[in-house]
Amino acid sequence: MKSNIVPKDVGDISLKLTNKPRHNSLILSSLITKKMQPKLIIHGGAGSSLNEKGGLEVVRKSLHRIVDELYNLLLSDTTAVDAVVRGCQLLEDDPIFNAGTGSVLQSDGQIRMSASLMDGINHRFSGTINVSRIKHPIDLARALQESPDRVLSDIGAAEFVRELQMPVYNPLTDKRLNEWLEDRKQDFTRKMANVVAESPGTGTIGVVVLDKEGRLAAGTSTGGKGFEKIGRVSDSAMPAGNYATGSAAVSCTGIGEDIIDECLAAKIVIRVTDGFSIKAAFERSFAEAHEHKRDLGAIGIDASGIISWGKTCDVILAAFHDGHKIGDSLEADNGTLIFTAE
């Protein structure tokens, strides 16, 4: 695997090396241990409007608060994986997002959540599918990083929760219950819950981080699309929706089936790993998604610290810290769009 830290400085090595092996070793060691500027980007879903979440300023305040907390953690040497987990916890705790507390109900009135975590340096994916009655599904995905069986669903996930002695928690909110009751009156004629907009939308949360050591990680969590058939599996617990290597990390949001059909997160990351810039990887992948009439979005960071987000939907609820300031996507133009920041 190529280094995530050295490439910026490789061009200078020929100017610095001497005929003294020990001196050369010290120079190379200095280059390899050089600290990176930490970067991060998060998302709270995608869709067509902010109205159902209380409007622009409510969403912005929530996202910016989380970005600020995570950036301060990264400045204090928190690892990429730990920062991703903490970011997902904070987003799962906010009931305006469809993950953890505030998750939507499925067709039988139950909440089943999915989440995944990928450590880019160790190239290790773990996830949980359709788990119930826990506060932070991302915590289960984190625990599975050390398990020989790294993706568990349903009964297996429930057994692992008991083994870990995670406390029982009910993520149901009055808003989600009332939403389900209203749709039951209409025999569940909508395809999914109003998790972003008044019209059918989608809801997921995600966090992508580059830490001081140049390590990348990505995490994604969701309550599903709402009113789905029992047993439906989201992209959020698959490499299609959450993927990372030492070269890039990506978390997706949108219509899960569209993300799976495009294998979007893995496609973008592999393109970067194979030599595309992250900008070019996003542009190519979203051009294909647009051509295929997909409804989705994604956030990502590469090993050099370039931040990107893209969407084919009208709105992606993303915010980031580029090492200097916080920015977001909340007032971006409707339709397919790619954004890149160094």
How is the main sheet built?
8 strands, mixed
What proportion strand? Answer: 15-25%
What is the C-alpha radius of gyration, as a whole number of Å? 20 Å
Q: Supply the number of helical segments.
A: 10
Name the shape in a single word. Answer: globular
Q: Could you list some keywords that capture this structure?
A:
342 residues, alpha+beta, Glutamine Phosphoribosylpyrophosphate, subunit 1, domain 1, 2 domains, 8-stranded mixed sheet, 5-stranded antiparallel sheet, 10 helices, 34% helix, globular, disordered N terminus
Question: Secondary-structure blueprint of this entry?
Answer:
Elements: H1 7-16, H2 21-32, E1 39-47, H3 56-75, H4 80-93, E2 113-119, E3 124-131, H5 137-143, E4 151-153, H6 154-164, H7 174-185, E5 205-210, E6 216-222, E7 242-244, E8 248-254, H8 256-262, H9 264-273, H10 278-291, E9 296-302, E10 307-311, E11 315-321, E12 326-328, E13 337-341
Parallel strand pairs: 3-4
Antiparallel strand pairs: 1-5, 1-11, 2-3, 2-6, 5-6, 7-8, 8-9, 9-10, 10-13, 11-12
Quick structural summary:
This protein has helices at 7-16, 21-32, 56-75, 80-93, 137-143, 154-164, 174-185, 256-262, 264-273, 278-291, and strands at residues 39-47, 113-119, 124-131, 151-153, 205-210, 216-222, 242-244, 248-254, 296-302, 307-311, 315-321, 326-328, 337-341.
Summarize the structure in words:
By secondary structure, the protein is α+β, with helices and mostly antiparallel strands. It folds into 2 domains: 34 residues, no CATH class; 256 residues, (Glycosyl)asparaginase (Glutamine Phosphoribosylpyrophosphate, subunit 1, domain 1, 4-Layer Sandwich). It is built from 10 helices and 13 strands. It has an 8-stranded mixed beta sheet with strand order 4-3-2-6-5-1-11-12. A 5-stranded antiparallel beta sheet has the order 7-8-9-10-13. Strand 11 and strand 12 form a beta hairpin.
